[in-house]
Amino acid sequence: MDARVTVAQTTKAASQREADEPHSLVVRFGLDQPLAMDAGVSLAPLTIAYQTYGTLNADKSNAILVCHALTGDQHVASDHPITKKPGWWWIMVGPGRPIDTNRYFVISTNVVGGCMGTTGPASLNPATGRPYGLDLPLVTIRDMVNAQAMLIDHLGIETLFCVAGGSMGGMQVLQWAASFPSRVFAALPIATAAKHSSQNIAFHEVGRQAIMADPNWCQGRYLEEGVFPTKGLSVARMAAHITYMSDEALQSKFGRKLQGREAPTFSFDADFQIENYLRHQGTSFVDRFDANSYLYVTRACDYFDLAADYGGSLALAFKGTKTRFCVVSFQSDWLYTTAASRAIVHALNAGGASVSFVDIETDRGHDAFLLNEPEFIATTRGFLDAAARARGLPPAKGSSRTESPEEETL
Amino acid sequence: MDARVTVAQTTKAASQREADEPHSLVVRFGLDQPLAMDAGVSLAPLTIAYQTYGTLNADKSNAILVCHALTGDQHVASDHPITKKPGWWWIMVGPGRPIDTNRYFVISTNVVGGCMGTTGPASLNPATGRPYGLDLPLVTIRDMVNAQAMLIDHLGIETLFCVAGGSMGGMQVLQWAASFPSRVFAALPIATAAKHSSQNIAFHEVGRQAIMADPNWCQGRYLEEGVFPTKGLSVARMAAHITYMSDEALQSKFGRKLQGREAPTFSFDADFQIENYLRHQGTSFVDRFDANSYLYVTRACDYFDLAADYGGSLALAFKGTKTRFCVVSFQSDWLYTTAASRAIVHALNAGGASVSFVDIETDRGHDAFLLNEPEFIATTRGFLDAAARARGLPPAKGSSRTESPEEETL
Lengths: 410, 410
Prior knowledge:
2 copies of one chain form a homodimer.
Chain A: H1 3-20, E1 25-29, E2 35-36, E3 42-43, E4 46-53, E5 63-67, E6 93-94, E7 99-100, E8 105-109, E9 124-125, E10 130-131, H2 141-154, E11 160-166, H3 168-179, E12 184-190, H4 198-213, H5 222-225, H6 230-244, H7 247-253, H8 273-285, H9 291-303, H10 314-317, E13 324-330, H11 338-350, E14 354-360, H12 374-391
Parallel strand pairs in A: 5-8, 5-11, 6-7, 11-12, 12-13, 13-14
Antiparallel strand pairs in A: 1-4, 2-3, 4-8, 9-10
Helix pairs in contact in A: 2-3, 4-6, 4-9, 6-8
GO biological process, one term (chains A, B): homoserine metabolic process
GO molecular function, one term (chains A, B): homoserine O-acetyltransferase activity
Organism (chains A, B): Beijerinckia indica subsp. indica (strain ATCC 9039 / DSM 1715 / NCIMB 8712)
């Protein structure tokens, strides 16, 4: 057997197990503690898989909730159990890092609808003994946040020191600040938007149609059929990945460079490096992510329109809030643009909130929030330091800046 | 049988017939007149399907070649034989229109690799009695242009008064001007680029992978199998279509408006108008276009890099040219940007060419070149009028501006 196929099958099997037996802490809410969902139904039982880093202090005032993006998960700063790669925000979270685990207690949950242990379409539906598939009610950003609040209650934390996250994670930050203003001391929404634009919805719809076009999708019942819509999910990921990088970054990184050849082959092979790169992004993604989960999380973003819940006024969502905000955008991000962040800032200002806004000059596009962007890292550190002083948190014990990523080569 | 299915099957069948029995003029070049292709092989026999509008004058000095874009065809100003819709540039070409058929003789060919009668992957390969499929050599923009030159020779035309086209059509314009400078009096490249960027290639690659992921693609042999990769081609079209419209235009046209409902359905239905619109773009496209042709024309664009044939200097491609150029871009076009047009203009200036450059303010994105954009229409008319005077062409007989689209409601 082809060794590559074996590895792929092993990771796919691991991915499926992760949905019900995650390598994470887990809390299970029973039938008596249902999640009331925006779809108008209750979800119970509900499992939430989460990770923590650092130590919760005695008065439980140093907790930072990190919310993950579309295909992220709770493995923020520890190795991913399937890919074995470092956590997706290792650059930001850890001892001596801006989100300093010597000082803060960091919590991250897999979102409802995800596939890494929190109840999602790949989880076993106890009512049927089969995976939920599309029987799981549609999930909204607010549902994700309400589930997180159940976990925070369970941990006995009244007020989060900070809620932080980029992209879909930033939407959760905004929803937290709007839904639970008294429980959020500081909020750090990064590279995000208060609603999905028409173009945002369009790209997500292409991805969903690519998945549903794959005959192995089986109307969402592929896990029972023992197949997987690998090709459809891969195409969806490729299309999405283009939106994560700026035109300039693609041009400077790949341009028209050929992949391991001197001249084009006059064929449909991956002649260009960018083609090879995209194909790799597609095929590696399917080993760690569930296709139905992709449908759910993209739909959650599309439905997100925070102002709509406040009579169309985003300012009303934040009216009178005591939360201190730091809004961060990246100038070359064309998925969630600087203009989208500015709209959030305007609403916060109109709502009377304390807000700082940092629009970072970079050519790395949307994915900049995952990368070593010195100004972004310094901004996060500075915002949290100031908030921590205001919150009366002591400096980190034994903290050292020598580990900070500014001084590292990535 | 579902009436919609019947219509779809009828148009699909019509589309397949169109590849070998087009509703167009046709010229067939035999084995003695092969097309020497960039792939290093010769293509013979070669059929070119084309349309003409207006009358060629006695000294054959009033011919305008209109080159079509990716999925366009030779039906510039007359009804499309499959969709029955008006030609794709009816707004620009016709009696009294800017490309005035009372004054000019307009020629348009289906490109090599297309599916409307010119030899392409859906055409019957006389050597095998089966459709070419992927046995057709890869086609480049230069191959398309060289085939057009064979037709122009056949028509006895030495010098074209103008070569005009948008998008992939504009690439052909640039290639014509570079390959045959003495045969092009005026050139009008619109909303185009002298090479495909990394992001351009990336979007095309997503489309190709979507097609190839469809099991009905059958490694390109679907016509013999009696199936069609409808879903894959539809997804490819949806992804591409996003790039044809600006973010602003999508937002003002569709925003987050729901499709025929008051509230979201909490399902994966096309709740949003933009979803419905994109799905329609996808499904209607497959009735008129061949999936393998889509692979070929996208690849031709990806391979296009005019400067590469001139030692990396675009200026050398145009050195000493006598052709007068008008380069047109649209400010909200993010597929082939203003910057890409400016690069062409810089090269033309460096090559000593006569060039005017018009960057049109519009929010309609790349597709603006197909729409009623008054400044663009006036620019085209003005450029051609001035060139016609320089060429000594008499004013149009019986021409009237009352038909000009500026005064119409689209």
